[in-house]
Amino acid sequence: MSIVIVLACLLTVSSANAQAPKPAKPAPAVVAIPDAVTNSPADMAKWLKTHTTSNQAFQQALYQWIATHIAYDIPGMYQQKNYRDTAAVLQQVLRSRVGVCADYASLYARVCQEAGITAYTVNGYCLENGTLAPTGAHDWVVVKNGAQWTVTDPTWGAGTVDGARFTPKLNWEWFQVSPQVAVKRHIPFDPMWQLLTNPVRHDEVGVSRQSGPAFNYNDTINKYLRLPRYERLAGSLARIERYGGAANPFVMAELDWLRQTVKVLAGNREIEERNRLVDQFNVANADYAGLVKGYNEYVSFKNSQFLPEKPDMTVRKMMDALVGMAEDLSRRLAAMHGTDAAMVDHLRELGAAVEEMRGRIRTEDQFVSRYLKTEKAKRRSLFYVDVVEKS
């Protein structure tokens, strides 16, 4: 998720807690993660897997550790950052013990992922008293335990920010919140991540709305996760536009970033596709040269009236190999489509040459079949007949 607004990822201020969802009850005893295993998400996940008895206990311990060991980075919230949840960034967060909401969410999701728990960071904006919160874009986590999705916000679980002051205070109000409750305060940019069959539109936030068409978020997420980055972002862009579009400054900024990124990725993909086509063409061109070489060797052998004599099976295999090469090359070229005039011309020229060679090979294949069906004592005459027919 992009971080495109400088005043982004703020913790909720103290006065905003009045409408927070009902607190989720933590386990009676939450295991404490020792400092010795907090050098990397992988180390934390490994230790938690060994020292907790369930995914629930694992996540409670992780939530508590992040809330009590990572301080909110007040200076960092005013700095524009273009990173994603890279390993290097998370290492820095664990070393410095400070971060903004993207860091809190990414760390929580990564530790879960390292343990095989389905978790993803989500980017969006927040509401206060049913209206747009002025704090900017925000990041949180969605987690799937079995068939059940929940929303966890480790940033809001760590404390509050009032102006330039961070007050640490562990609370469990935003641990494993149901999607139906979470959407009252957290609105993902991509409606898919609301995890609702009837997502809130961006232009209907805070107002009563009528039920819309059912949205199968599980199927959409499963498909999304199988796609490469370009298709993922293009799909997110389309869904945001379909569900209210640029209804507020935060969505507008996200749409601008998505459009620019999709445009760049589309251009890169065109370049990659052309380079791939050039590579395929070069291979086909080399294979055509090999086909011509093989055909010329056959013609030389035929001009010597198949002498020195070879077993019939060898002659048949020689011709079958040429036929197979020609047919394969023809199919591959038919599947290549040029994206510019120069490549179109190259493909047309090579395609014409291959088809001409296919015709010659087809004719010789018929000759070989006739040759092999003829009694050996009469085969020599076939060469003279063939010369006469061609003349």
TrEMBL record:
InterPro entries: CAP/Cytokinesis_protein, Papain-like_cys_pep_sf, Transglutaminase-like. Residues 93-156 form the Transglutaminase-like domain. It holds the Pfam family Transglut_core. Residues 1-18 form the signal peptide. GO terms for cellular component: cytoplasm. Keywords: Signal. This is Transglutaminase-like superfamily protein. It comes from Chitinophaga jiangningensis.
